[in-house]
Design goal:
The protein has 387 residues and is of the alpha/beta class. A four-stranded mixed beta sheet has the order 8-7-9-10, covered by helices on one side. A three-stranded parallel beta sheet has the order 1-2-3, sandwiched between helices. Helix 6 links the parallel strand 5 and strand 6. It is globular. Bound molecules: nicotinamide-adenine-dinucleotide and magnesium ion. Magnesium ion binds next to helix 7.
Length: 387
């Protein structure tokens, strides 16, 4: 799901490296016809899905002309259909943002091995998502590099468990953060930041939305919430530590004083390969880590004044209920506006904070309620930006 994006392309790259082990059943994208067409010709999936209906017609015609047997579907219906299809056993959930929620939930409900890159789905509906997975027996493997690192640092027979009663040995987990492109920028400089500067991450190459999230550090706020749901840990046991080299991808502190970390070059093909092959290991095409070349591993505390998104994330995580939904929705609207040049970089946390202040936090029992609160928060953020 989301095969034309940064995670999608990296996933297909790992599959190509291990073509004797995997077969692609379906590929999906929003509207990039040419890119999805090329992927279909190469990987010959049974299904291709475009969210956009006009794009789906174009793709269908191109594939027919090329003599391909891939069947083209469209819309959210097509996405959820392939996500839950009985002929697939593993789903890479790599659609960006809240748009990925329903297909990701469908994959969990259908008992798939879910490779979870789409962190926004978990932030919006973490409790419901984990419940669905537990009921269906779906194995959730985090692909977000920090969470994948923590998963790798847990004992293998505990990785598949959902509740934390067997994790008494864990004292806390540390999510490392590169600090993004503006780690050392002053507050005044931050006010002048352009979308191009915000999308230029020092260590990782990613899609535009998560790149901006890394620059504001709202990404770490989402990851804090993501970790608390995935590992069933209270947010008080999750800390964030700036580590500019992005070599240590996260750490688990155990009660006996041991600290386990997972290291590697910053390349998403490592967590993707681990997810695909778990509990085994396959080649990922990633360069071997050379610690002499890296030279130093540095650490520092995050600066709350310049990165207010961190505190907003922790507050939303503690408040629970619909607060994480509001945080995520307001951020998606604000980031889209920033990328179009409609608001400044430092307005992103302001829109999120105002949204969290105005809307009432609710407890959520169904996916309909999640979608309703998400819609409400998006409309409010739009109003705050455009009046
Ligand atoms: P991206 O923007 O590069 O790609 C997004 C993909 O989703 C594309 O294939 C696009 O066609 C599809 N898509 C976008 N909007 C859609 C919609 N409304 N309906 C259906 N499909 C839609 O994003 P990315 O960087 O690959 O990130 C994907 C997800 O993985 C995000 O949730 C991100 O937070 C997470 N993630 C990414 C990285 C990374 O290194 N890129 C790391 C950790 C987590
Ligand atoms: Mg991450």
């Amino acid at each position: 799901m989301g095969s034309t994006g940064s995670i999608g392309v990296n996933t297909l790259n790992v599959i190509e490296t291990n073509s004797e082990l995997y077969e692609v059943f379906a590929l999906t994208a929003k509207s990039q016809v040419d890119k999805l067409f090329k992927q279909c010709v190469k990987f010959q999936p049974a299904f291709a899905v475009m969210l956009d209906s006009a794009a789906a017609v174009q793709l269908k015609n191109k594939l027919l002309d090329a003599g391909s047997t891939t069947e083209v579907l469209q819309g959210m219906e097509g996405l959820t259909f392939v996500a839950g299809h009985e002929q697939s056993d593993c789903v890479m959930a790599a659609i960006v943002g809240g748009a990925g929620l329903l297909p990701t939930l469908r994959a969990a409900e259908a008992g798939k091995k879910v490779l979870l890159a789409n962190k926004e789905a978990l932030v919006m509906a973490g409790r419901l998502f984990m419940q669905l997975a537990e009921q269906s027996g779906a194995q959730i493997i985090p692909i977000d590099s920090e969470h994948n690192a923590i998963f790798q640092c847990l004992p293998i027979d505990e990785q598949a468990k959902f509740a934390n009663q067997n994790r008494q040995g864990v004292e806390k987990i540390i999510l490392t953060a590169s600090g993004g492109p503006f780690l050392n920028s002053s507050l005044t400089d931050l006010q002048q930041v352009t979308p191009e500067q915000a999308c230029k991450h020092p260590n990782w190459s990613m899609g535009p939305k998560i790149s901006v999230d890394s620059a504001t550090m709202l990404n770490k706020a989402l990851e804090l919430i993501e970790a608390s749901f995935l590992f069933d840990l209270p947010v008080e046991h999750i800390e964030i530590l700036i580590h500019p080299q992005s070599v240590i991808h996260s750490m688990v502190y155990y009660r006996d004083g041991s600290v386990l970390a997972q290291l590697g070059n910053p390349d998403m093909r490592t967590p993707i390969a681990y997810g695909l092959s778990w509990p085994n290991r396959i080649a990922a095409g990633v360069k071997t880590l050379n610690l002499c070349e890296v030279g130093q591993l540095n650490f520092q505390a995050a600066d709350a004044d310049r990165f207010p998104c961190l505190a907003l994330g922790r507050a939303a995580a503690l408040a629970q209920g619909s607060a994480p939904i509001i945080l995520n929705a307001a951020n998606e609207v604000a980031v889209a506006a920033f990328l179009k040049g409609e608001i400044g970089f430092t307005q992103i946390p302001v829109i999120i904070e105002e949204s969290l202040n105005v809307l009432e936090y609710k407890a959520l029992d169904s996916i309909e309620e999640v979608l309703e609160e998400d819609n409400k928060a998006r409309s409010l953020a739009q109003k705050l930006i455009f009046g």
